[in-house]
Structure formats: C-alpha cells, structure tokens
Design goal:
The protein folds into three domains: 9-245, 3-Layer(aba) Sandwich (Glutaconate Coenzyme A-transferase); 268-305, no CATH class; 311-541, Glutaconate Coenzyme A-transferase. The protein is 22% helix and 23% strand. The strands form nine sheets. Strands 1, 2, 3, 4, 8, 9, 10, 11 and 12 form a nine-stranded mixed beta sheet that branches. β8 and β9 (190-191) form a beta hairpin. α4 crosses α5.
Amino acid sequence: MASRARLGTGKVLSADEAVRLIPDGATLTISGTIGWLYPAKLLQALEVRFLTEGHPRDLTWFDPFPTGVPGIEPLAHEGLLRRVIGGWFTPHPRLQAMILNDEIEAYMYPLGTLSFWLQSMAAGREFYLTNVGLGTYVDPRQGGGRLNRRTTEELVTLEIVAGEEYLRYRKLPIHVALLRGSVVDEEGNLSLDGETVTMNSLYQAIAAKRFGGVVIAQAKRLVESGSIPPRLVAVPGVLVDAVVIDPDQHRDEASPDLEWLVPDLRLPRPPAFVLASPSKLVWREWFESRRADTSSGGEAGTLERLLAAGGTADRIVARRAVMELRPGSFVNVGTGLPTRDLIPAAIEEGLDACCELSIETGVLGGYLNGAGFRSNMRAVLDTPAIFSIYASGIPEATFLSMLEFDQEGNVNLLRYGDVLVGPGGSMDIAEAVETVVFCGTFRAGGLQVEAANGNLRIITEGKFPRGVERVQAVCFSGPKMRRQGKRVLYVTERAVFELTDRGVALREVAPGIDVEGEVLGRMAFRPYVDGSVATMDERIFRAGPMGLLAGKPAAAPGPVRR
C-alpha cells in the first residue's frame, strides 16, 4: 500500500536528517544525468552517514538514466552498495572496479527499456514486455544483462506471446527516490523550471510511493505554498516526503562553470570552433563577445580554420556520416562521437535548419555538442516521451557510436576489454528506425591521421581494430537487423561498410588509402567485396564546409585503386 506524503512546512529537513529516512536494503533511484538534476548534497550526506555510522547498507541502485559525473561514486563503498542496475557506467572508476572485482551484483540494460520498466512499475503493473534486446547480451540466452559472476538472479526472462518472442522484466520495488529541482514550495511541489532536462523525475517519485517508499526532493530555493504556477510543477507535493534546500547547487554539477548556459538561451549560430571545441573557456569567451553584438559573422580565426579542415579521424567520420542526412528528416544523434562531432558538422553545413536533430536526453534541435554546450533548443521532453517517439518509428535514422563490429554485422557497445561502457539508449532507438549509421574510427588507441587536398594519410596507426572476428558482447544483432530490413552502415575515417545478406560488405574507401594494406589487411575478418566499392567524397578531406546544401552534388563514386 503506497504511503501518503505528509503536508506542510514540516517537510523541510537538513540533508543529514533526510538521508536518515533511507533504510538498510532499500532500492534507490536518483534523478538526473551528466550532472543535470543531480542531488549532490543528498548523495554527499548519504556517503558521510555510511562512512561514520555504517548505515544505510546493502542498497540497490536503480538508474533509469546514467547519472554521469560525479554520479554514483559517492556510494561506491563496500557494504553500502549491494547491487546496481543501469545502462551506462563509464565515468565511475570506483564503481567499475567493484563490478569487475565481483564485489557487488551488476546488471546493464538499455536506457529506454529502463525508463519504460520504471514507468510500468509506477503504473502498478507486474511486468514490462519488450522486443528490444532480443538476440543481444540482454537476452537471457546470452546472459540476461548480468555483468559478473556474482550476479546470479534473473531479472529478465524470455516470454512467448501470440507466437512472438519478448523479454519480460518483472516488478522491482523502488523504496527511495532522490530528486532535484530548481524551486520547491512548502508543501513539496517541485519545479524543474530553470533545469536543463526533465528525465524520469515524476515516474521515479510515483514508483517509490507505489511501493510505500520515501521521496526526498532537493532544490535551490524554497518558496511559499501555491506560488509555483501549476503547469511548472513537475512533481506534486503529495508525492514528496522531505525537502532539502541547497542554495549552492549548480545547474550542471559536472561543470559548475556553465551556469550561464541557461535552458532557454538563444544565441546566433555558433561558429565551428565553438561547437567543435571541448574547451569551456572558448565557449565562454565567444558567448561574452556575442552578448553585446548579436550579429552572426566574423569569427574565422586560426583555430576555426584548423578544426574546419577535418584533420582529426573523429571529425572525418562525422563529415562522412552527415552526408546521410536529408533535408526534412528527423533523426537521433547518439552519445559519444555523433553528439560531439556530427552535430557540429551538421550545423556547419546548415543541415540543422532543415533537419530535426534529437538526443536521448529529450532535447530536440538547437546547438549542441558532446561536452556540454547547449543553446537554442526547440523542445525538451521527459525520457518516456522521447523514447516513445523513437519506438514509434517516426525518426528515419539514428547515428550511433560503436566499439567493435564483426562480419555478421553485430556491434558491441557494452565493454571494451576491462572497461564497461554500456549501450545507453541506442538499442531502443535502433529498434524501430529504418537506417542505422554506426560511427567510429577504423582502429582505436593512438590513431593519428592527416587530411589534406582531398586525400587521407595515416600518420600513426591505432593499436586495436574495431573490425573483429567476434564482438565481446552483442548490443546490436546483425542477423536481426537484416531480418528487419534495416539499412545499416559502419562509417570510419578510411572506409565505409554496409550490412548485406552476405554479412558486412566494403562499400567505400578514402582517397589516398591503400585498400589491401590499410583496410582489408588491418581487420580481423575479411568483409565481402564486390564491384560496387567506391571512393569516399573528396570534400570530406578538404578544409571548410562541404556545401551539402549549396546545390553541389556529391562527387560521382570513383574507382578504387587496388
């Protein structure tokens, strides 16, 4: 029976008082991602309480969206955590060590699946059914998402419904939800107005209350009851048990110096060097220079020219991948290389003005990059909403990162050696779209290339191939994607491959690259090669915009020198 949150000003507690509401053995869910909506003060207080008192202990962390940096690291202590369930553990070195050393139980599932599973539990359902993940590491026939030997319990089973296979996720009680917003009133009504994203906050609160649990909300400001406009209340006070005020919280706890990047920020089109730069100083200096002058021209400095030349392997991959965008299309751009490099490449070509680019955090449109720059967003949806759009098949394509691919077309995003990465939302997104474009350098580990005058030269070869005999873990099943009739590309800086009935086929090779010596001879399998192999468009390897919207047709495919 769900508990009823008490009403009134007695809800306001200190962080130390609030975390005492968390019992031993609880399943905990935390709002936010990548520093946004991250309740830092609550997690710090929880860590201090455990280190001084030894409680709470044996917690399960249910993470429906990657909490990011600093993330769950404050809870990565022996005895505090018993089990983790998430979709992406990359920025958590202590947590990764605990998983790899079999110190805690660990499961990894697709983010859309986690969000719909949470929503299903919040709605009182006993289980959640999906076809996402069939034939992959999530399938109980391939491990059921378990990450180590210590993890033995099955959370997902195979079910046959009307003759079709599905994965069945059973009910998993949520006992505590730690949320964050910008403003909360005395009755606990929580507003996310002023926050960058929305995520799963409401469903986390409902799920915790459904199972008789506790909801604790952290906010920057406390206001009088009834002073928040009702349409700005993201989590109603009837669901909130305790309120903690942190006047020092940052919009992005991973990048406290980005407070100026407000969600409704509107800027003239940023030049290429801003969107391609990982330096927050570059963004700030450009932003400050534009506040007084809102015209859009003028920044054609050395740094911009260097970045526009496409001299890095990642940027070359992005410039080839962006050629798959068509005016009027609605697409998803995945985490990693696509967000970091493809979105700037699309903006450089002006494709953002005639395409709807979206990312799995719920952001549609705008100027984005992978290191935190956000402005001119058209819409911000909650997680179940954006993944419902992806599941509908409305978007035409998705651009995703890849760690490895093999001859059958299988792709690994789960782990690379002893490093756990995770698929994020990519498995859910790829399920319904018609075109999947995987993006990654041809080899990893120290690769250096030079692009000049329409040709590519390998300066230092990468140590590790992405084209492997067999991927470490199947996140995307090549045979399944073939059966679904998808168009699947694997784009690298020196070659483009396509999934066919004969497996992975070589379709394009960069000008200046030796096919046998620098492509086929540096893969762990030999792709199918027929007479259709072409030369990649030389504009990819020249400085400046490629003119994809300027009435300049792509160069006719040229023969490959063998």
